[in-house]
Amino acid sequence: MTTVNVAVRVPARAVLAITMASFLGFVAFLWPFVVAPGTVGSTQTPPLMFGVLLLLVLAVIFAEIADGRIDAKALAMLGVLSAINAALRPLGAGTAGIETVFFILVLAGRVFGPGFGFALGCTSLFASALLTGGVGPWMPYQMFGCAWVGMFAGLLPRLRGRAEIVLLAAYAAVSGYFFGFMLNLSFWPFSLDPTSSIAYQPGLPVLEQLHRYLTFFTITSLGWDTGRAVTTAILVTLAGPAVLGAFRRAARRAHFRAASTFTAAAVPSSASLGAVFADSEPLVQAPDRPTHGLLRDR
Do the beta carbons of residue 199 and residue 263 sit within 8 Å? Predict the structure, then answer.
């Protein structure tokens, strides 16, 4: 069995917080299928949900930092990889769906663990949005989508060698489609003429609403998402062994662990000290010296 070096440990409290945030994230993504018409205004639901979700994500990350779950070395690694992703993203996005950012998320989440992958997905997209001026109502959706890509990569079965690369390449392709499928939900209810046969219609049964969305996804986004899936799978296949090796060497040398804690030793009682000294022998015993010779010389 191989030992996995996890940079961001996920204790029970953080697992609960991430689970709650992910659940609310899925609800916010899938709200067109679950929100009944007339309960909450359709234009108000997504902003309200994602305002809460962003606070939850920040609370999770800062709680990890405050508890010492992310040490200085893990923070440095998180910052470096976020900067790399922010620099790589403009190189590929915008041309036939080619994305150069997801393979780093997949490989980093694989090596450093699901907590690190979740944090890296959030910080990478946030840094990229600031760098490219892409701040907008779509940014929280992108942050959560990438956070899930990195997190689920850390939860994959543990394999090694060629089998691991095949698994990661397949996951990279699936995550490319998953990201596009989820992100389209951020604008689908607002982007089409309501009279269109593929537009969102409040009050329709879930299956009919899903059929409309799948048709919309196939017509408008499937080709673009195929470019992302193929690009990410190829990058993982070609660069995966080298990048995984570099990440694992960095993890071994950095030895990511929480800071050591020291507790005061128990002070022995006077009775126990007396028993110890009673049973002990003198460390140095003076040799026997005759005294009659000294007295006779005087």
Answer: no
Residue type, 107: L
Taking only the tens place, the pLDDT of each residue in 220-277 is 888 888 988 999 999 999 999 999 999 988 888 776 654 445 455 555 555 554 554 5
Contacts of 105 (CB under 8 A, 6+ apart): 85, 117, 120, 121, 124, 146, 149, 150, 153
- With DSSP H G I counted as helix, E B as strand and the rest as coil, what are the percentages for the chain, rounded to 5? 70, 0, 30
The span from the CA of 70 to the CA of 31, in Å, is 33
Please tell me the least confidently modeled range out of 33-37, 174-178, 277-281. 277-281
Structure confidence at residue 69 (pLDDT): 61
Give the C-alpha separation, 198 to 209, whole Å.
9
Q: Which residues of 213-222 are buried (b: 16+ CB within 10 A; e: fewer)?
A: beebbeeebe
SS3 assignment, position 120: helix
pLDDT tens column, 167-188: 999 999 999 999 999 888 888 8
Sequence-distant (6+) residues with CB within 8 A of 178 are: 145, 148, 149
Q: What is the DSSP letter of 196?
A: S
Residue 229 near residue 211 (C-beta atoms within 8 A): no
Structure tokens at 195: 């009279």
In angstroms, rounded to a whole number, what is the distance separating the alpha carbons of residues 95 and 98? 6
Q: What is the pLDDT of residues 184-216, one digit of tens each?
A: 888 888 877 778 888 888 778 888 889 999 999
In this structure, are residues 42 and 202 in contact, taking their beta carbons and an 8 Å threshold? yes
φ, ψ at 216 (rounded to 5°): -60, -45
Q: Record the tokens describing residue 199, joined without a space.
A: 């537009």
